[in-house]
Amino acid sequence: MQHIDFLNYIQRELQINGAEVEEMRQFVPYKPKFLAKNDLFLSVGKVCTSVAFIESGAVLYFRENDDADKLVCDVLFEGSWVTYIQSLVTKMPSDMNIQALEDTRIIEIEQDVLNTFFEKFPKAERLSRKLTEASFIQIAQRAADLQFLTAEERYTKVLKEEPRLIERVPQYYLASLLGIAPQSLSRIRKELSKQSS
Amino acid sequence: MQHIDFLNYIQRELQINGAEVEEMRQFVPYKPKFLAKNDLFLSVGKVCTSVAFIESGAVLYFRENDDADKLVCDVLFEGSWVTYIQSLVTKMPSDMNIQALEDTRIIEIEQDVLNTFFEKFPKAERLSRKLTEASFIQIAQRAADLQFLTAEERYTKVLKEEPRLIERVPQYYLASLLGIAPQSLSRIRKELSKQSS
DNA sequence: CAATCTCGTTCACAAATGTTAAGAAATTAT
DNA sequence: ATAATTTCTTAACATTTGTGAACGAGATTG
Predict the structure, then answer these.
(1) Is residue B168 part of a domain?
(2) What is the DSSP string of A162-193?
(3) CA nearest B134 in A: which residue?
(4) Up-side HSE of residue A91: CA atoms within 13 Å toward CB?
(5) Does residue B161 fall inside a structural domain?
């Protein structure tokens, strides 16, 4: 199973040496936390107070409609940071659930710890800002794709840019993420397989 | 014509007194800039280096597809800040055009001026952060609407939440913003007018 | 092992949206 | 004021997507 070690990630992303990593560990002890499949990282009504690095596994962002269908807004895999910025920064209760899609191993950091951490290690704050900017760009791109691409184009784009979504996410969740019905996704896959053969 | 005075806005939003406003004016001289209808605030390929408060008028965010159709991504009116965060923070050339939809009066502030300004007036930086957060929440909501609402639902939502879009934006631009063809919007309007009569 | 259950597929039909073309209405230019 | 241009509407038809139902493969459970 794919695994991305947190300390390796930090060392690589911040471009620091082993000694500095060791220093950081005193602030953020390396204590992995395990979410069993279907465990919730965040649920509607709770305030999000932490960020977490996914070492392995995957999480599903979703809301529920009146029929209790899951409306999937995002899926993140190992190597990503999971949090709900909308609730984290406003301190308002979340309107989003975040659930483990597989058994998932995370390094969770509470926001107050993070803040003292940033004071001590400005490089980390720079990374944080970069990640937030990347999220902004990504969600704007997502809106543009939903606005201007057909369902088939959105699917082939996912196929190309994030194949883990096709390999590891049940098709009815992926369909929801693409904004279509599961049967429509099935139909699109069928059409594409015809063309490629 | 609707007009929102920049200094009033600043005083109200930062909750400061007239003397403080006066102090701020020395850093950011109150020099309105005028964009004639169709003038570009930002064009594809240029790096965005400023933010601007719209005192009156409106601007259109758009890309162009192969057929030179405008793909409308946003429209902002008086009282909003216009910038292209994706280019502003990354210093990468813009993939977006921003054009005056009406004769528009703005207060433009270059990023370097803004940074010294923030050092001097922390309240302003707080406002800036709040505005960026609001943009994030807004674009995420936009993506969710495109993903889960029908075209008609998106139209009625706009009708309710930002009627200036219906009143002041040509219908073919509004249709593009909603992610549909102009004829489809015309059809939706017709259906709705039937129902309400 | 049989009985369920979940998930993906397929089909027929319905509804929503796109496309093309034409003309009406509104706006702008001369 | 008139002509030219732009914008909006309408209609017919095509395409895409949604919906409900049925089916079956594969996993899970008793």
Answers:
(1) yes
(2) -HHHHHHS-HHHHHHHHTS-HHHHHHHHHHHH
(3) A86
(4) 3
(5) yes
B178 in the same domain as B129 = no
Enter the DSSP assignment of B17: -
The SS3 of residue B69 is coil
Residue A61 CB partners (closer than 8 Å, separation 6+): A72, A73, A74, A75, A76, A84, A96, A97, A98
| Cβ of residue B126 lies below 7 Å from strand D | no
Read off the CATH number of the domain in which B19 is found: 2.60.120.10
Alpha-carbon distance of B101 to B41, in angstroms, equals 11
Domain-located, residue B93: yes
The pLDDT tens digits along chain B (197 residues) read 899 999 999 999 999 999 999 998 888 888 999 999 999 999 999 999 999 999 999 999 999 988 889 999 999 999 999 999 999 999 999 999 999 999 999 999 999 999 999 999 999 999 999 999 999 999 999 999 999 999 999 999 999 999 999 999 999 999 999 999 999 999 999 999 987 65
Q: B102 and B19: one domain? A: yes
Contacts of B136 in chain A (CB under 8 A): 85-86, 135-136, 139
Residue B77's Cβ-side half-sphere holds a number of Cα atoms within 13 Å equal to 12
Which amino acid is located at B124 in the chain? A
Assess whether B142 and B170 both reside in one domain. no
How far is C-alpha A100 from the geometric centre of its chain's CA atoms? Answer: 10
Q: How many structural domains are present in chain A?
A: 1
Both B138 and B172 in one domain: the answer is no
With CB atoms and an 8 Å threshold, state whether B85 touches A136: yes
In-domain check, residue A61: yes
Range of the domain at B82: 6-148
Q: Is B150 (CB) below 7 Å from strand C?
A: yes
How many CB atoms lie under 10 A from the CB of residue B169? 22
* Same domain? B53 vs B116: yes
